[in-house]
Design goal:
The chain is α/β, with parallel strands linked by helices. It has twelve helices and ten strands. Helix content is 47%, strand content 13%. It is globular, with a radius of gyration of 21 Å. It binds flavin mononucleotide.
Length: 343
């Protein structure tokens, strides 16, 4: 099957890709999402301040062992030279696409002018993109993730996109909100359509895509090459299978069985424990179990049960029991239905 689009030399097999999410899209989650059909999965953002790279957290964020290609590393910062150096070092460490974050509205990122705050300063945007493309553009493609503008009165996304294309940026991701919107209100796709029409490079639409039908609708409105999904993948990494199947074949795949979902969840827990170790693994797995727990409608206290254990072994045992019970209930319901038909 022909790829949905290319980022530099990399063919991207299908339109739907995983959004970078700090605290969520660690290596285990990226590998899981890719195995479930996400065509691309960027790292959590890494600061361009290399002095901060000695922390365990930063080292974990730069670990790509076992990840399918192309490995995307997202960088956040405001200094052109620092971003260029950070890009160079990450390419040396195995990054195959460098993504620049100009979309994050978080205070932690924006207390200095960076993330989506950069959208206020178009000449700085140009200098940053030029510097990073000059530093690594002959080795790997550089992409930009941004928003539709600074605020609703300053939706300069089209200008930013033109600057990006002129700088040699290989693809754009546009979240259909302004910086001032944070995550409030609904994403709008008209500005994304205007950006798509203004540049020749691939554009990926992002924001509030919750299922395959919405993905198809957003592609129809924007005409973009792809869609990026973030929050809807929390506790549902298999969303990429459904979305990409619909977008590429027009058919909805049969839903995964409960047994298959249980296997995915339990393997994900094991991967988290192996990657993060006992203490962080327990904490990070709690977050994912909080989301996976939404499946367990038969056990309203499932979330609380998964939060209580103070070791990964105990947490895994609790999750295993809950998901076994969930699978067994479906099997029992099927046996009952078959018995009734036989009678
Ligand atoms: C918990 C969380 C962490 C995020 N971290 C990042 C990040 O590190 N880099 C980035 O570019 N965007 C980040 N985002 C924004 C997402 O990539 C995405 O643009 C946003 O969630 C909108 O997409 P959605 O509606 O599909 O979730 C984050 C979002 C969430 C919810």
């Amino acid at each position: 099957m022909s790829p949905a689009f290319h980022i530099g030399p990399w063919p991207i097999a299908a339109p739907a890709v995983l959004a970078p999410m700090a605290g969520v899209t660690d290596r285990p989650f990226r590998i899981l999402a890719r195995s479930q059909g996400a065509a691309l999965a960027a790292s959590e953002m890494i600061t361009s301040d290399t002095r901060l790279w000695n922390s365990r957290k930063s080292r974990q964020r730069m670990n790509h062992e076992g990840e399918p290609e192309p490995r995307v590393v997202q960088l956040a910062g405001a200094e052109p030279d620092a971003l260029a150096e950070a890009a160079r070092r990450n390419v040396d460490l195995g990054a195959q696409i460098i993504d620049i974050n100009m979309g994050c509205p978080a205070k932690k990122v924006c207390n200095r002018l960076c993330g989506s705050a950069l959208l206020q300063d178009e000449s700085l945007v140009a200098r940053i993109l030029d510097a990073v493309v000059r530093a690594v553009g002959d080795r790997v493609p550089v992409t930009l993730k941004t928003r539709t503008g600074w605020d609703r009165e300053h939706r300069n996304g089209v200008t930013i996109a033109r600057i990006a294309a002129a700088s040699g940026i290989a693809a754009l991701v546009i979240h259909g909100r302004t910086r001032a919107d944070f995550y409030e209100g609904e994403a709008e796709y008209e500005t994304i359509a205007a950006i798509r029409a203004a540049v020749q490079i691939p554009v990926i639409a992002n924001g509030d895509i919750v299922d395959a039908a919405k993905a198809r609708q957003v592609l129809a409105i924007t005409g973009t090459a792809g869609v990026m999904i973030g929050r809807a993948a929390h506790g549902a990494p298999w969303i990429f299978r459904e979305v990409n199947e619909l977008l590429t074949t027009g058919a909805t795949p049969p839903p995964l069985s409960r047994a298959a979902l249980r296997a995915i969840v339990l393997e994900h827990l094991q991967a988290i424990y192996a990657f993060h170790g006992e203490e962080s693994g327990l904490r990070i797995a709690r977050k994912h179990l909080g989301w996976y727990g939404r499946l367990l409608t038969h056990a309203p206290d499932a979330r609380a049960q998964c939060m209580a254990p103070d070791s990964t072994a105990a947490q895994f045992a609790v999750a295993g029991r809950l998901f076994d019970d969930w699978v067994e209930r479906a099997d029992a319901a099927r046996r009952d239905a078959a018995r009734q038909v036989a009678c």
